[in-house]
Design a protein that fits this description.
Radius of gyration: 23 Å
Number of domains: 1
Number of helices: 6
Shape: globular
Largest sheet: none
Number of strands: 0
Strand content: under 5%
Order of helices and strands: HHHHHH
Length: about 120
């Protein structure tokens, strides 16, 4: 009878479906935040020609606004910080695009708004 009890308890330990505590594995990240309408309008005007599902593959590799909602909060924060840096340094939109779309180039106030939004995602 003792071997059966030992086998039973060993099976309970091995096949226990509850997660182990202290396993060292991080919890899955939750979904990130939606882009506010005011910021989204800037992105629609100046970014989504390239940085959306139907944009260039290279640009989508950096950030894809069509997939933004699927990014976890940490990835969104990182992408937003990089967006702010690129826009603040006039790295984005690119010079050639700016020359061809002068009315769609973000104003300094719009860049500042994007950067303020970016900072709200940093935790």
């Amino acid at each position: 009878m003792l071997p059966a009890a030992v086998t039973f308890f060993a099976a309970m330990i091995i096949f226990d479906p509850s997660p182990a505590t202290g396993s060292g594995k991080p919890l899955p990240a939750g979904p990130g935040e939606a882009i506010p309408d005011s910021v989204n309008k800037v992105f629609q005007k100046a970014c989504m020609d390239c940085h959306a599902d139907d944009g260039s593959a290279m640009a989508r590799g950096k950030v894809n606004f069509s997939q933004w909602g699927k990014y976890d909060a940490g990835k969104q924060a990182n992408k937003a910080e990089n967006i702010c840096k690129e826009m603040a340094n006039s790295g984005m939109p690119p010079k050639k695009w700016r020359a061809n779309n002068p009315d769609a180039v973000p104003t300094p106030a719009e860049v500042e708004m994007v950067c303020r939004w970016s900072k709200t995602l940093q935790k």
